[in-house]
Specification:
With about 280 residues, the chain is an alpha/beta fold. The protein folds into 2 domains: about 220 residues, Alpha-Beta Complex (2-enoyl-CoA Hydratase, Chain A, domain 1), CATH 3.90.226; about 50 residues, no CATH class. Helix content is about 45%, strand content about 15%. The chain contains 11 helices and 10 strands. It has a 6-stranded mixed sheet with strand order 1-2-3-5-7-10, with helices on both faces. α2 links the parallel β2 and β3. The chain is globular and about 60 Å long. Bound molecules: ligand T3D.
């Protein structure tokens, strides 16, 4: 058996996990290939998000990328991904089980992000392409560096948008732009992404992490339960008629009104002091 020394060949983990107060910061860490997703990265990312969901002391999550990219989507060279079980079926031969890859990795990832009990911020530091772009768009807030861009790269390799793209894009920017972005695969600069409502904000590159942390800190001090239920209510209302949405609001508000956070929020307001929310 060959032993490798720590100094010569210890591989960098494809995901870095850090804690700062109530915030968890996840950094996609394969900068040489623009943090494209490998099976190994997926193997760390979903459990890290699950750990954040399970840990009541985490009240906001930031996801960013190492180096000059955010995430270039699926690593198209990762042999472990050519069949979901790493069975070696070749993409070149046109027989890769891409559906199984999506089922195994991208579906649970998108679902996990969209149902987190705390807000998730994508701090998009560079190009976000393919599933990397849609992974960012799954997050509650997308803050992008001015030099960043978004690319629905799928059509260029003969695929359709995944990781939630077909659902997210028309809801964020309308059908015409969704079709345009998805069919052309054109690069959308961050400023333009903000202008058309695809993302929350575009900020100067040097300000990205400071602004993401400030936003995360602010959200962490709010009622996590109210924020998670707000996300759910807005998503649920999208396919409803007005009466349906009003009905659901009344039902959810009924539950929220019985919660400790509502009692604390009102008590703090009346006492003219900052609220201390604990529910999650
Ligand atoms: O099984 C399945 O496939 C199902 C899942 C599908 C989900 C998807 O995400 S499909 C979409 C996959 N992503 C792409 O098609 C994007 C491919 N990348 C690009 O088009 C370009 O790299 C970018 C437009 C994102 C950035 O361009 P640029 O010029 O800034 O950088 P670059 O030189 O192309 O890339 C830098 C390096 O990263 C380069 O490696 P090298 O030559 O320096 O050794 C490049 O090969 C590598 N890289 C970039 N994207 C990927 C990648 N390597 C593997 N997979 C990638 N997706």
């Amino acid at each position: 058996m060959t032993q490798t020394t720590a100094s010569s060949s210890v591989a960098e983990p494809p995901l870095l996990v850090a804690r700062q107060g109530a915030m968890m910061i996840l950094t996609l860490n394969r900068p040489a290939s623009l943090n494209s997703f490998t099976a190994a990265m997926h193997g760390l990312l979903l459990p890290a998000l699950q750990a954040a969901a399970d840990d009541a002391s985490v009240r906001a999550v930031i996801i960013t990328g190492a180096g000059r990219g955010f995430c270039a989507g699926q690593d198209l060279a990762d042999p472990a991904m050519s069949g979901a079980g790493g069975d070696g079926r070749s993409k070149d031969a046109g027989n890769a089980d891409v559906g199984a890859v999506v089922e195994r990795f991208y579906k649970p990832l998108a679902e996990r992000v969209r149902t987190m009990p705390v807000p998730v911020i994508a701090a998009v530091n560079g190009v976000a392409a393919g599933a990397g772009a849609n992974f960012a768009l799954c997050c509650d807030f997308v803050l992008a560096a001015r030099s960043a861009s978004f690319i629905q790269a799928f059509s260029k390799i003969g695929l359709i948008p995944d990781c939630g793209g077909t659902w997210l894009l028309p809801r964020l920017v309308g059908r015409a732009r969704a079709i345009g972005l998805a069919m052309t695969g054109d690069k959308l600069p961050a400023e333009e992404a903000e202008r058309i409502g695809l993302i929350w904000k575009c900020v100067d590159d040097a300000q990205l992490m400071d602004q993401a942390m400030t936003l995360a800190q602010r959200l962490a001090a709010m009622s996590s339960k109210a924020l998670a239920e707000t996300r759910l209510a807005i998503d649920a209302a999208l396919p409803m008629d007005f009466a349906g949405a009003l009905g659901r609001e009344a039902e959810v508000q009924g539950r929220m009104g019985c919660g400790a956070d509502f009692a604390e929020g009102v008590a703090a307001f009346l006492a003219k002091r900052p609220a201390v929310f604990k529910d999650r």
